[in-house]
């Protein structure tokens, strides 16, 4: 038997998608039963000139990727796994805001379809009762001239896992929609809501800037007003997360009273639980 790379499998029949949009997010939707990673597959489409708003949805990933080169593992059908191609026209200095805007849209889609009220842990993890429900991986591709070519935003939402389905080291810090609500969520209803909210929030950001999403992010935040330990790429920092700045940076006041503006980094899940 020949082994095929999942991204090269022929276009197998899959469930029909409930909609097709004329423009904006979801203008083209590629749905595959199995891919290595929706981000990787969409990167190939982007190189071949796919338009902004193109979406890839997979039922299963064999090599899902998380932030900081971690793996994003899920069993077939138990997660929503999607990536969106963006070619925004905002200035380079605004691009770190994209991932925050997407977190707001994903939280709103989950709230709309499940009744849950996901909170956002800076910058873009969606949390319920201190456990991670969803992760977002934004990958930026620049031109040789240093301009933005495109962004691929990958979104994974845990749908159907029982707590004990997660690996032992994640059981205390991960959750799913079923584990929180006791009900199954319709994956395509959630996907449709996600496309809707992404379309709304991203076009709002393009037209009006970051302020509306900054407000929505701050209202849903479980980071602001709390002591946090940041695993920032260059220097780990501790302090009180005071605000999300107008540029999208986290404003962190350290023990000396100095205010730091942090664009990149993360609050490790375990530290968050221990600290907050
Ligand atoms: O580490 C994180 O929190 C980000 C996880 C992002 C996972 C999603 S699943 C769909 C898309 N494809 C990938 O390979 N990763 C993202």
Automatic annotation (TrEMBL):
Keyword Metal-binding: no
Gene Ontology terms, MF aspect: biotin--[biotin carboxyl-carrier protein] ligase activity
InterPro entries: aa-tRNA-synth_II/BPL/LPL, Biotin_CoA_COase_ligase, BPL_C, BPL_LPL_catalytic
Broad enzyme group: ligase
Residues in BPL/LPL catalytic domain copies: 28-206
Entry EC no(s): 6.3.4.15
Name of the protein described by the UniProt record: biotin--[biotin carboxyl-carrier protein] ligase
